[in-house]
Amino acid sequence: MEAISHAGTVLAVLSKEGIAMAAEKKVTGKLLDLSLAPGGEGMGGEGTEAWMGGGGEKIFLLNNNILAGLAGITSDANSLVNFARNSAQRHLFTYDEDIPVEMLVQRLCDMKQGYTQFGGLRPFGVALLYMGWDPIYGFQLYQSDPSGNYSGWKATCIGANHSSATSLLKQDYKEDLSLEDAKSLCLKVMSKTMDSTKLSSEKLEFSTMTLHPETKQPLAKIFRPSELDQLLRDLELGGTKDEHVGVGEGSGGGGGGEGNVAMST
Amino acid sequence: MECSFGITGKDYVLLCSDTSAGRSIVRMKSDENKIKSLGPHLAMAYGGEPGDTNNFAEYVERNMRLYHIRNNYPLLPGPASAWIRRTLAESIRSRSPYSVNLLLGGFDTTTSKPHLYWIDYLGTKAVVPYAAHGMGVYVSLSTMDKWWFDGMDKKEGIEVLKKCIDEVQKRLTIRFNFNCILIDADGTHTINIESEDPLADFESKTGSAAQQEGIEVPQPPIDVGVTA
Amino acid sequence: MELNGGSVVAMIGKDCVAIASDLRLGNQQVGIASNFDKVFPVNDKLYYGLPGLATDVYTLREHLRFRVNMYRMKEEREITPKTFTHLLSSTLYEKRFGPFFIEPVVAGLTTPTPLDPNPKPYISTMDTIGCITTPKDFAVAGTAADKLYGVAEGLWEPDLEPEDLFETISQTLLNAVDRDALSGWGAVVHIITHDKVITRTLRARMD
Predict the structure, then answer these.
(1) Is A220 in contact with A61 (CB distance < 8 Å)?
(2) For the structural domain made of B3-211, what CATH number should be given?
(3) Where is this region: Disordered (chain B) (predicted)?
C-alpha cells in the first residue's frame, strides 16, 4: 500500500464512446537506455496495434479488449501482467471469445487475495486500473488494490496524489462525456496532479479503448510518443510553462464519494 | 434410429428432435425428451449412445448453469458452442469418450441474432443456417436446401420444418414422434409441431404462459418441450 | 482426413504469396457446411491453412492462437513465417503418439530488417507430426492433394505478379477440387503482398 501511494499516478475516465487512460512515468535519469524499449526510437514506428505503440512501462495490453495501467512495484506488476495475459488467453481458448472485463479483474483479484490470506508470502504491491469492452456490459473501468478488492468506476485514479486527483475528477466529471472530453479531462487532471510544470511524452503514457468504427470490435490503442505530444499540443497542455501545478484545494476524501459510482463489487 | 433438425430464421431458431429411445431396431420408449434447455436463450437437441447422451446433456446443462450463477449472465451461444465442442474434442481422445451428437440452437441477446451449431461426437463444429443429425440427414437436408431461405419469419420456418418431418415420415420405414422448441428474443418456447397451426397455438399463449417460460433470467427452465 | 474432406494450396509469387482453401465440411459423403474456412490469419503478412480432421482444425487453431498471442504480447512484435512454422511443428510433435490429423500449410512474407533486407516469400508445409518441408514453388495438402500437385505443376511459373498469382492459384484449386468428391463447395483465396492482403471468395461447383 505504501509503495502504491508513491508510484506514478494512473487515471482513467469512462465515456459512452470509449475510455481514456493516462499514466505518469517516473523519469529515472538520462543514462537509462530506453532506445530499445517499446516506445523507444530503436523499435521503429511500424504497426498500428496497441502493443506496438508507446507504453511498456505503465500501461499494458492484457487482451484484445482490455488495457491496464499499473501503479506499484514493477517486478510484481510484470508478473501480474503475465498472469492476466495467460488467463485471458485461456478464456479465449475455451470459449472462443474475448474474456469479459469483470471476469479478468476477478481472476487477478482472486490471486491477489490469496497472498493476503496465506502466511509467509508478501502480497503483490500493485494497484491496477483496467479499462475494457465486452458485448455484455460495453465499456467498463475497474480499479483493484493489493488486497484483492475491486470496484467499477466512471472516473478514477491510483498512485501518488490519487485523493486529490479523484476529487478533481469528481468536480469536473459530467454524464454523457464524449471520448474527446474524456481524453482532455484525463490529461487536464493529470497536468494538475503531476509535480512537473508541463506534460510531455517523456513523463506520460496515454491510451484509449474504443470501438472500431466499422467492425464494432474493441480497439485498444497505446499512443506513441509523437502522437501523445501532438495530442498535448492540441489540448494546449504541453509546452505552456504557466500551467497550474499542484493539488485541488482542501478535500482529501478521494474514493467512495457520491460523484463516483461503483458499478459492482 | 434417431433424427433431429435445426432451422434458423430471421429472429429465431427452431430445434426439433424425435422422441424415441431404444436399441437397434427395438423402440423401448416413445416419449423421451431429447431437447434440453441450457439457459434462457440456449438449448440443444442431442442423440447418440443411450446413457452417454443424458449424462453429457446434464453435464453441459450444469456447467452452463454454473457459469450463469457465477457471472450473473448466461454464456452466449458462440462461447457455449466453443465450450461444448472443446469438451467433446477432449473426450474423444480420452479413455472413455462421450458418443453424443448434438444441434445447439441459441439466440444472441447482445446482437439479436439466432445461431445454430452442428456438433458431432468428435468435436466437429459447423456454423450453419439449417442442419440435421441421425437418419433424417439423408432425406431432410435436401428438403431444407430446397425450401429454406434467408430471413424466414416464424410461419415460414415452421412450414419448412413440417416439410422435413413429412419427408421423414414418408421415406423412412420408422414412424417418429417429434418434439419441437423455438428460441427467440423472449426465450425458449415449446411448439406443438403436430398441431394444425403450431404458430397460432404458440402465439395465443404469448403474454402469459410463454413469457413465464423463457424470460425468468436467473432461473432457466430445466425441462422444456416434453410431449407425452 | 477422408472423414471431413477439404484441401489447401499455397504458392509463391514475386514479392507475394497466395494461400487458398475450399469451403466444404462434410461427414463422409454428406455435405454439412459450405462455409468452413480452413485458412486462418496470424497477422497481415502470414496465413496458415489446416486441412484434415475438422475437430482438430478447431483445436489446433485455438492452440496456435493462444501461443501466437502470448508471443506477440511478450515479444512486442509479430511472429515471422519461419518462427511460426517451427512453433506449429513443435505443437504438432507434442502430440507425436496421438497426433492431430492435419497437414498444415503456411504462407507468409517476412518484414525486411537491417539484418535481412531482402527476405524471400515463404511457404512451408508439414506432415501430421510436424516434419517441415519448405518448397520454393508451391505446397498442397488435403484430400485433393494429388490432383493439386498435377494442376499446380502444370500452371505454376516463377515470379508471378499478385494478380497473375491469383489467377493461377484459383484455377489450380478449382480444377483440382472439381475432381475430388470430398473437397469443393466454394473456395477462398488470400493474396498476401507487402502492403495489403486481397481476400476473394470464389464461386465453385456446388455438387
Answers:
(1) yes
(2) 3.60.20.10
(3) 202-228
Give B29's strand partners. B21
At the topology level, CATH places domain C5-200 in: Glutamine Phosphoribosylpyrophosphate, subunit 1, domain 1 (3.60.20)
Which residue in A has a C-alpha nearest to residue B73's C-alpha? A136
The grid coordinates listed for B191 are 411448439
Residues 6+ apart with CB under 8 A from C192: C16, C17, C18, C19, C44, C45, C46, C47, C107, C108, C109
User: What residues does C189 pair with on adjacent strands?
Assistant: C20, C200
CA–CA distance, A44 with C83 (Å, rounded to integer): 21
* Polymer length in residues for chain C: 207
To the nearest whole angstrom, how far is the Cα of B20 from the nearest Cα of chain A?
32
Domain ranges, ordered by start, for chain B: 3-211
What is the residue whose three cell numbers read 410461419? B155
pLDDT in tens, B96-146: 999 999 999 999 999 999 999 999 999 999 999 999 999 999 999 999 999
Q: Which residues pair with A18 in a beta bridge?
A: A210
Q: Does B205 score more than 90 pLDDT?
A: no
How close A37 gets to chain B, by Cα (Å)? 36
H helical segments located in C18-80: 54-75
> pLDDT digit string (tens) for C18-46?
999 999 999 999 999 999 999 999 999 99
Q: Which residues of A touch C72 (CB under 8 A)?
A: 51
pLDDT at B203: 74
Domain count, chain A: 1
- Bridge partner residues of A105 (DSSP): none
pLDDT of residue A49 exceeding 70, the answer is no
Dist CA B221 CA B202 (whole Å): 17
A263 is a domain residue: no
Q: What percent of chain A stands above pLDDT 90?
A: 56
Degrees to nearest 5, angle at CA B199 with B193 and B203:
130
Q: Where are the domains of chain C?
A: 5-200
If interface means Cβ-Cβ distance under 8 Å, which residues of chain C face chain B?
A: 3-4, 25, 27, 30, 32-33, 35-36, 53-56, 58-59, 62, 98
Under DSSP, is residue B189 helix (H, G, I), strand (E, B) or coil? strand
Query: Does residue A225 form part of some domain?
Result: yes
Strand partners, A144: A128, A150
Inter-chain residue contact C58 with B89, CB threshold 8 Å: yes
B123 vs C55: CB contact, 8 Å cut-off?
A: yes
- Residue C14 has a pLDDT of 97
| CB distance A162 to A9 below 8 Å | yes
Q: In chain A, what's the furthest Cα-to-Cα distance?
A: 54
Q: What are phi and psi of A235, to 5 degrees?
A: -90, 0
Nearest by CB to C66, from A38, A61, A93: name it. A93
Residue B71 Ramachandran class (φ > 0 left, ψ -120 to 50 alpha, else beta): alpha
CB A128 within 8 A of CB A68: yes
Higher pLDDT, A141 or B228: A141
Domain range enclosing A84? 1-28+46-240
| Prediction pTM value | 0.89
Per DSSP, the three-state class of A94 is helix
Kindly report each contact of residues B99-102 with a partner whose C-beta sits within 8 Å and lies 24 or more positions away, as own/partner. Answer: B99/B48, B99/B49, B99/B52, B100/B46, B100/B47, B100/B48, B100/B49, B100/B52, B100/B53, B100/B56, B100/B57, B101/B46, B101/B47, B101/B48, B101/B133, B101/B134, B102/B44, B102/B45, B102/B46, B102/B47, B102/B133
Q: In CATH, what number is assigned to the domain containing residue A51?
A: 3.60.20.10
